C-alpha cells in the first residue's frame, strides 16, 4: 500500500504549510488552555490527517510506512499534543483492526476512523501491568454471545475523546496466550473515565483511566473473531507505532535545532553572537549529527517494514524497530537538553518553546515501550538469531 507519488508530493507540502501557518502559531494557546482548538481539529479532518494510514478502500489516504514517517517528521515539528488528536486513529487505535480485524469489522469501523468521525484509542496498560503487558488483569468472561469486562486501563491517550477503544482483556489463562483484543464502544453501560491525568508536559494531550464494571461487549467485537490472539495484535500495532513515534522524535529534534540555531545567532554575549563560540557550535554539531543518524535509521527501517505485509510480524524487523525507537527517542532527549543549555536561563522559562519541548519529549522514552523494553527486545532477538 502506498499513495501515488504525485499525490504524495502535493500532500507533504500541504501538511508542512498547515503546521507552519496554523499549528505553530497556536502553540501558546495550547499550552495555556490545555486544549486543541476545535477549528484546528476540523481542519485536520478536512486534510485527511485522521486517515493517513487507512487504505483508500476504507476512505483513508493509504500511506505506506515510508510515506507515513515523512508526514510524522513534519508533525513532530510542532507541539506534540496536536498529533495526539489524530495520532491514535492513524496508529495504535486503529491498526489492530486493519491488521487482524474481520472484513465486517474493517468495513464497519475504518471509514469512520479515517474521516475522524470516530476517535479510536488503545487500551493496553493497567495499574499493575505496564512493561509486562502480558500480565494484564482486565477480565473478559463469556456470557452467552457477550463478554463481560471488568478492570481498569491506565494512561489511555485520547480516552476522553474516544468513541471506541481497541482494548486488551483476558479471555483465557495467564500469559500472552490468554489475551484478546476487543473493539469496545465508549458509550457501553458500565464504562467510565477516571479524572484527567496531570502530566509533566504535552499539554493538550488527554489521558486518563478507563474503568470497566460489568461492561457487556458482543463476542463479535473480538478483533479477528478468534480469542487468544490479542497480545500478538497489540505487539504488531506497537511495532508500527514505535516507528511512527521515532519519526516524530526526529521532527521534534529538527524543530529544537531550528530554535537553538536561531537563538545562537540572535543572542549576544562577550560582544558577539553566542553562535560564534565553538562550545555552542559543538552542541549544535552533536545534535545535528545525531538527528541525521536517527532520521536515516527511521527511513531505512520503514523500507523494511514496507517490504513485508503489515499484518505479518518479522522478529528481525521488530528488533530493528526497537533499535530505532531506542535511538531516536533518547536522541531527542539529548537534543532538547542541549537546546535548553544553548538558551541558558531563557531555556528554563516557559515563554521559550524549548522549555516546553524539553518536557514534551520526555514522554517519548516512556510510552509505546520504554527504552529498557526496547533493549530487552533487541538483546533477546540477537541471542535468538545467534542460536
Ligand atoms: N509481533 C508479533 N508477535 C509478537 C511480537 C511482535 N512484535 N512480540 C512478541 N510476540 C509474540 C511472541 O512471538 C509470543 O508468541 P508465542 O507465544 O506464539 O511464541 C507472544 O507474543 C509472547 O511474546 P513474549 O514471550 O516475547 O512476551 P513477553 O511477556 O516476554 O513480553 C515484551 C514481551 C516485553 C516485549 C512486551 O510485553 C512489551 O512490548 N512490553 C511493553 C509494552 C508497551 O509497549 N506498552 C506501552 C503501552 S501502549 S502506549
UniProtKB/TrEMBL annotation:
SUPFAM superfamilies: Acyl-CoA dehydrogenase C-terminal domain-like (SSF47203), Acyl-CoA dehydrogenase NM domain-like (SSF56645). The keyword Glycoprotein does not apply. Pfam families: Acyl-CoA_dh_1, Acyl-CoA_dh_M, Acyl-CoA_dh_N. Residues 11-117 form the Acyl-CoA dehydrogenase/oxidase N-terminal domain. GO terms for molecular function: oxidoreductase activity. Residues 121-215 form the Acyl-CoA oxidase/dehydrogenase middle domain. Keywords: FAD, Flavoprotein, Oxidoreductase. Gene3D superfamilies: Acyl-CoA dehydrogenase/oxidase, N-terminal domain, Butyryl-CoA Dehydrogenase, subunit A, domain 2, Butyryl-CoA Dehydrogenase, subunit A, domain 3. It comes from the Bacteria. PROSITE patterns: ACYL_COA_DH_1 (PS00072), ACYL_COA_DH_2 (PS00073). Its EC number is 1.-.-.-. The keyword Flavoprotein applies. Residues 228-383 form the Acyl-CoA dehydrogenase/oxidase C-terminal domain. Its cofactor is FAD. Belongs to the acyl-CoA dehydrogenase family. This is Acyl-CoA dehydrogenase family protein. It comes from Polaromonas jejuensis. The lineage of its organism: Bacteria, Pseudomonadati, Pseudomonadota, Betaproteobacteria, Burkholderiales.
